[in-house]
């Protein structure tokens, strides 16, 4: 795997070893940041317009100024430049981070932003996991439902704590519970349940991240005349399902083999993985 040696800070290519971010950086101090994880798959940047749109929406929510150069074409050009210098192709993970410029304590002195683009080589295109994930609930901390719930902020302590719980329980994944007591998402993915050929996923009003891959799965389902509904998800919803699969921009689709004492198959997950790979051509 090729080592990443460059990143792009505010449009400029620099070495990752070059000190460039101040200690009073607001992302470091307060989590005052947003990020997007973007997939290069078979030399194609997947769903970049959707990522840029979600990032701009999040910046608006956080009252950050959106610079004019934050267009799809400009960001795409910068990502391609970085991938060439890091020789990351045909498959890679790109992280685009936006953070408010330093100044102030909790109250910012400016709403101007800086942005950082990083890349990391991946070995393959979308591939369904051979062994189903073993998942259970993480219920120690409930996810709040508010205007921050649907965006990807740099404050990820809830997911970090869930990841530590997953680790201690020797699980592959944990499902998160919102303040209403229903299941909204997993640590890094949106959740889909299949029952009698119909698909169910939590609506954004349940506090899940507005996943880019979630949007694609819903679109593919509609195009293929598969019924899909946004409903509250409970433990019973999952236990009564035929299949459970998770989606995010980097992994694509991962199927859950076991939740508590219930076991699941992966026929639908394989179908959607095949459809996703068709989009990479």
Question: What is the CATH topology of the largest domain?
Answer: D-amino Acid Aminotransferase, Chain A, domain 2
When the domains are counted, the total is 2
For the biggest sheet, the summary is: 9 strands, mixed
Distance between the termini: 23 Å
Overall mean pLDDT score?
96
Number of helices: 7
- Specify the CATH homologous superfamily of the largest domain: D-amino Acid Aminotransferase, subunit A, domain 2
Describe this entry's structure for a reader.
The strands form 2 sheets. Strands 7, 8, 9, 10, 11, 12, 13, 14 and 15 form a 9-stranded mixed sheet that branches. This protein has a 6-stranded antiparallel sheet with strand order 2-1-6-5-3-4. It has 2 domains: 6-121, Aminotransferase class 4, branched-chain amino acid transferase, N-terminal domain (D-amino Acid Aminotransferase, Chain A, domain 1), CATH 3.30.470; 133-279, D-amino Acid Aminotransferase, Chain A, domain 2, CATH 3.20.10. The longest helix is centred in the first third of the chain and has 15 residues, at 72-86. The mean pLDDT is 96. The two termini are 23 Å apart. The protein has 281 residues and is an alpha+beta fold. The chain has 7 helices and 15 strands. It is globular.
């Amino acid at each position: 795997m090729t080592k990443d040696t460059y990143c792009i800070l505010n449009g400029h290519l620099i070495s990752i070893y070059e000190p460039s971010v101040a200690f009073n950086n607001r992302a470091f101090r307060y989590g005052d940041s947003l990020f997007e994880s973007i997939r290069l798959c078979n030399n194609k940047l997947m769903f970049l317009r959707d990522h840029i749109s979600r990032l701009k929406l999040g910046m608006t929510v956080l009252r950050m100024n959106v610079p004019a150069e934050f267009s799809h074409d400009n960001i795409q050009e910068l990502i391609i430049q970085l991938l060439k210098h890091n020789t990351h192709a045909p498959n890679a993970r790109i992280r685009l981070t936006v953070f408010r410029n330093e100044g102030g304590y909790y109250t910012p002195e400016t709403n101007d932003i800086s942005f950082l683009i990083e890349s990391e080589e991946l070995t393959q295109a979308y591939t369904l996991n051979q062994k189903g994930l073993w998942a259970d609930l993480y219920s120690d901390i409930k996810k709040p439902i508010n205007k921050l719930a649907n965006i990807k902020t740099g404050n990820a302590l809830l997911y970090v704590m869930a990841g530590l719980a997953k680790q201690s329980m020797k699980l592959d994944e944990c499902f998160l519970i919102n303040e209403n007591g229903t299941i909204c998402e997993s640590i890094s993915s949106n959740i889909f349940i299949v029952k009698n050929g119909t698909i169910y996923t939590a609506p954004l009003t349940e506090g899940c991240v507005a996943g880019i891959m979630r949007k694609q799965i819903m679109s593919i389902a509609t195009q293929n005349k598969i019924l899909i509904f946004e409903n509250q998800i409970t433990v019973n919803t999952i236990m009564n399902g035929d299949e459970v699969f998770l989606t995010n921009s980097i992994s694509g689709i991962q199927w859950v083999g076991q939740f508590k004492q219930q076991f699941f198959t992966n026929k639908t997950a394989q179908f959607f993985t095949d459809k996703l790979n068709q989009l990479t051509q």
